[in-house]
Every structure is written in structure tokens, then in C-alpha cells.
Design brief:
Diaminopimelate Epimerase, Chain A, domain 1; OB fold (Dihydrolipoamide Acetyltransferase, E2P); inorganic pyrophosphatase (n-terminal core); 3 domains; about 40% helix; 18 strands; alpha/beta
Length: about 550
């Protein structure tokens, strides 16, 4: 069995499942009308189109919300809606989701219908206020749902089905044995942009202007939002991202073509990693520092020079974001050391921009191997972001603190919260108590890499194997980049790199005499092995291109000294 076949077997891919995975079919998409309230939403939008009502698409300031907003703007234009605009909330003014103030301002413009994307499932009072002002609301979202849905015209959220039929789903997929097959939507982990795209597919059955198949040109946006929102890349998500990358490779959208240029991404080489680590951070920088409207303007740009100027602005903002992030991270480490005995870290300070602290929370999680909440103290009130891993849900811990917090919510691994500054100590105690009540076991072991296969000879990691690996793209949540393990390797050379010698490159040799280089950025101390030592390593193969030369290297993830 070849190394690639070992990988496929380890992931349970054989027979029809293997073919379906390696060749995702867009045409295998699910019926959009199986989503809750889809027919109600389509009927209301058809009415709005017939009467040319004024519609406001209410987005979100992250990439999922921005791409979903653009998907609806583009498609509505194709369908012949003449009076559509977008409202992107400012993180520092409105905060996340619908607000009463924003609803009142939108109503004052004469809007008769608000369509939310990536938010709205918990916005009962805001939707009631819209109704009082004569504005209907259609919610499209994928976040946690309320026990009772808000009084919108429609609430299209796949997670509603998980609430209604919890025993029919496993890992967000409808069980093959379910009696609900064909009656409910079979896949629940769509991103916000994925839900918006399903609305477009449904509208195609009732409105002219976007011929069947032409909606595929929106998949560049769907892929970008889906990858960056870290939903599972299986089922419909995998197909949408697979084909969306092919749309991106053609680079027809001026804004994304310009963004790839400033990020140094060749369109014909674009993959999911480029989206998550190249395009995504630059788009998010605008909302973290000022307003995400800059990113929306980039996505919507029609002229190449306009698009390039917008992309360059995002690139410059990302440089500032990284500098601010590094400063906050260093300060947060000092405070985290005070609470290093806590199971869940909760740190806070004035001046830590809540546009950036989500990234800092992720870096603290990586450093301390603990779920982390980072808050900006803003006078009497504090806003924070949380990151987690394993079995601990930061969103559930927030829900368990409802009597302490002002508002909060999100996903298992990422969430936001607002509370009175004086309640931070009580919140710290509560989330730590919540963690202990769960009686988790060996959580930190979940952070250790798990090998898909063991490499018997380093010479098997060659160009042809790299080509085979590319068939498993797109990588992401639910389909991680494969990890390989190699044993009994001899260190024959070590090179420290970086301004502070924080990176290391090891040249290792196996028992057959084959050698390969392995690189680790910001490596822990035990990675700095001496020549002559032996180790077992966990790594991901990569291609290094430098001055026209290609070489196979390993991204070093973990090692054990032998």
C-alpha cells in the first residue's frame, strides 16, 4: 500500500466515498427548500422584487458576513432588484449583530425589508423594533439559535434543525438511518455565506436574471467565507470550496485579484491555506482597526485601479494590526502568568483593542494550552473574545454565565462576550467552575498532532506524493492537512533562524540514508536538537520555492527525543 493510499484508508475513504471525496460534485447540492423558513423568505423577496421595495442587507464585519453580503448584493442585482444597499456594522460602534439603533437608522432611509447575513438569530428585541417601524426582517444565519425564534418573516438557520431533531444528526450530518431523510436539510454546518448562497439557489427557482449554473461564479466568495469561518469542510462545504477555488483561480473579480496580488498569491496556485492565512487576515484587518466597509468596497470594486488601491489599504492596515497584536500579546502574557494555575484563562486590560483581542486569545491558547478569554476594559463595560479547543465550549460557558454578563454568544471554539468590568473576577470564577463541572479528561493531549500515516523512508516524500496530496484539498476544519510521522531520524544539522533565533531548521536522516529538512517557526526549546541526537517527528510536507528552485521540506509540528 502506497503512502497516499495509507492516508486515504486512515480517513475512511474507499470505494464510492473515495471517489466522491476526491471529485466533489457541485451538482450533488441539497434542496435549499429543506432549510427552515426558506419558502417564506423566497415568497417575501419575490414580493419585494415585484414592488421594487427598498431592501437593506445587514451584514457582519468578519469575512463570512462580508462575503455573504456581497453574494446577496451581486445576485439581487442579477435578479433585477433596483433598490438594495448594505449596512455593515462597526465593531466599535454597533458591535456584533443587529442593534436597535441601527434598525432605526435603516428604517429612516425608507427601507421596507432587512435581510440579515451571518447574524440575527438571537435578535428578538431588534426585530420587534423593526416591525414597529414597518420594516420586515428575514434572518439568514448559522450561529446558535434561541429556544423560540424571533418574530421575523423567516429565520433561515440550519442549526434550528439540530435543536428540533437532536437525535437525527451526528457531526452536523443527518444520519443515514434517519426517518427524516428528504424532509430536513441533511447538512447543518454551513457558514453564513453558505446559507446566503442557498437563498440564492432557492430564488433562482422563482426569479429570472441568474440562469441555473451562473450562480457558480459566486463560489469564489462562498469559498473565502467558508474557509475563513472555520466550518467543517465536508459535504456541501467541501464541494463549494473545491469549485470556489477554481473560480478564484480565474480571478475575474477585480477586488480579489488585487488582494491576491498584494498578498503574493498566484491565482492559478490558490488554495485554502492562502485564503485562511493570506487573504483572510488582510480583509479582517479593516474591521479590527476601523471599519469593515473598506473590505466590502474592495470586494465590490469594478475597476482594477480602484480595486488595487483598496487592496493596498487593507495590506497596510494588516501591518498595523500585527504590530498592535504583538504589543497586546506581550502584555497579556504577563497577566496570564498571574492566573497560570487556572484551567481557563481570563485576562483583561484597558487599551487592548477588542478588534484584535480575538487573535491574542488564540495565541494565548496556543502558548498555555488552555481555553482563553481576553477582554478590553472600556470604563464600566468590557468586551471580550474567547478561543477554545477540544471538548470545552466557550459559548456554552458564556451561556452558563447569563446572570453575570450583558450579552454574549458564538461557537464552541470562538465566542464574544460583554460584561460589567467589575464582574470580570466573578466571570473568571464562573467559567473555571463550568470547566470543572464538565469533568473533561486529557484535554491537552487533544492538541498533540495525530499522524495519518507513518513514513518508512523520507525518500517517499517526493514531488509525485505532493501532487497526490493536492487531491485532498481543500484543507480545513473537518479535513485537516495530513500529518505524517517518521521514526528513528538522526539530526545531522541544525540551523537557528530569526532575529531572536526563535525559528529552527533541522536536517534529518533516516536509516536508509535519505535526508530532508524540517522547519519550525517560534519553536519550543525542545525542538532545538543537537547533531547526533535521534528523534521521532510529526510533520506536514511542503514545497519550498526559492529563486526558481523547488525543494520538499517538512513543517515540523512535534517531536520526541529517542
Amino acid at each position: 500500500m502506497t503512502l497516499f493510499e495509507q492516508l486515504l484508508t486512515a480517513r475512511g475513504l474507499s470505494g464510492h466515498a473515495r471517489d466522491a471525496f476526491l471529485n466533489p460534485s457541485y451538482d450533488a447540492k441539497h434542496d435549499p427548500f429543506l432549510l427552515p423558513d426558506m419558502m417564506k423568505a423566497v415568497n417575501r423577496l419575490v414580493q419585494a422584487r415585484n414592488n421594487q421595495e427598498k431592501i437593506t442587507i445587514y451584514g457582519d464585519y468578519d469575512i463570512d458576513g462580508l462575503t455573504a453580503t456581497t453574494v446577496l448584493l451581486d445576485a439581487f442585482d442579477s435578479f433585477g432588484f433596483d433598490n438594495v444597499d448594505a449596512f455593515i456594522p462597526n465593531r466599535f460602534v454597533e458591535g456584533y449583530g443587529l442593534t436597535v439603533d441601527a434598525v432605526e437608522r435603516i428604517a429612516a432611509t425608507g427601507a421596507q425589508l432587512i435581510v440579515t447575513v451571518d447574524c440575527g438569530s438571537l435578535s428578538e428585541k431588534e426585530i420587534i423594533r423593526a416591525s414597529e417601524l414597518g420594516v420586515d426582517v428575514i434572518v439568514t444565519d448559522h450561529h446558535n439559535v434561541a429556544p423560540v425564534q424571533p418574530p421575523a418573516i423567516a429565520v433561515i438557520n440550519p442549526k434550528r434543525l439540530l435543536q428540533e431533531y437532536p437525535d437525527e444528526y451526528q457531526n452536523y450530518l443527518l444520519k443515514s438511518s434517519s426517518a427524516m431523510t428528504g424532509k430536513v436539510y441533511p447538512f447543518l454546518d454551513l457558514a453564513g455565506v453558505g446559507v446566503a448562497f442557498k437563498l440564492i439557489q432557492a430564488l433562482q427557482t422563482r426569479l429570472d436574471g441568474l440562469e441555473p449554473g451562473h450562480e457558480k461564479w459566486l463560489l469564489d466568495l462562498v469559498a473565502l467565507g467558508t474557509v475563513c469561518d472555520i466550518v467543517t469542510l465536508v459535504d456541501e462545504n467541501r464541494a463549494n470550496v473545491f469549485w470556489g477555488l477554481k473560480v478564484l483561480a480565474q480571478a475575474k473579480r477585480p477586488g480579489l485579484r488585487a488582494l491576491m496580488a498584494v498578498a503574493g498569491v498566484e491565482p492559478h496556485m490558490v488554495n485554502s491555506r492562502h485564503l485562511g492565512f493570506g487573504l483572510g487576515p488582510r480583509m479582517n484587518a479593516a474591521g479590527r482597526l476601523e471599519t469593515a466597509q473598506f473590505s466590502l468596497d474592495m470586494l465590490r470594486a469594478k475597476e482594477p485601479m480602484q480595486a488595487l488601491e483598496a487592496a493596498q489599504k487593507l495590506d497596510a492596515m494588516n501591518v498595523v494590526r500585527r504590530a498592535d497584536q504583538d504589543k497586546i500579546f506581550k502584555e497579556a502574557i504577563i497577566q496570564a502568568e498571574e492566573y497560570k494555575n487556572d484551567t481557563v484563562l481570563v485576562v483583561s486590560s484597558p487599551g487592548w483593542s477588542h478588534g484584535i483581542i480575538g487573535i491574542v486569545a488564540a495565541k494565548l491558547l496556543e502558548k498555555y494550552k488552555k481555553p482563553t478569554y481576553v477582554l478590553e476594559e472600556m470604563g464600566d463595560e468590557s468586551k471580550g473574545s474567547a478561543r477554545s479547543y477540544g471538548d470545552f465550549s466557550v459559548a456554552d460557558a458564556i451561556r452558563a454565565s447569563d446572570d453575570i454578563i450583558i450579552k454574549g454568544g458564538g461557537h464552541k471554539f470562538a465566542a464574544g462576550v460583554t460584561m460589567a468590568t467589575t464582574d470580570i473576577p466573578a466571570f473568571r470564577q464562573r467559567v473555571n467552575e463550568f470547566y470543572e463541572q464538565q469533568k473533561f479528561v486529557n484535554q491537552q493531549n487533544l492538541l498533540l498532532p495525530k499522524a495519518d500515516a507513518t513514513v518508512s523512508m523520507l525518500s517517499h516524500i517526493n514531488e509525485s506524493f505532493i501532487v497526490q496530496l493536492a487531491q485532498l484539498e481543500p484543507f480545513g476544519s473537518g479535513n485537516p492537512e495530513p500529518i505524517l510521522r517518521a521514526e528513528k531520524l538522526l539530526v545531522i544539522n541544525r540551523r537557528k533562524m530569526g532575529a531572536e533565533s526563535q525559528h529552527v531548521k533541522l536536517e534529518l536522516r533516516d536509516e536508509s540514508g535519505s535526508t530532508m529538512q524540517f522547519l519550525a517557526f517560534n519553536a519550543p526549546n525542545h525542538f532545538f536538537l543537537e547533531p547526533g541526537e535521534h528523534a521521532a517527528i510529526w510533520f506536514q510536507p511542503t514545497v519550498n520555492e526559492w529563486q526558481g528552485r523547488r525543494s520538499i521540506e517538512g513543517r515540523l509540528l512535534h517531536l520526541e527525543l529517542l
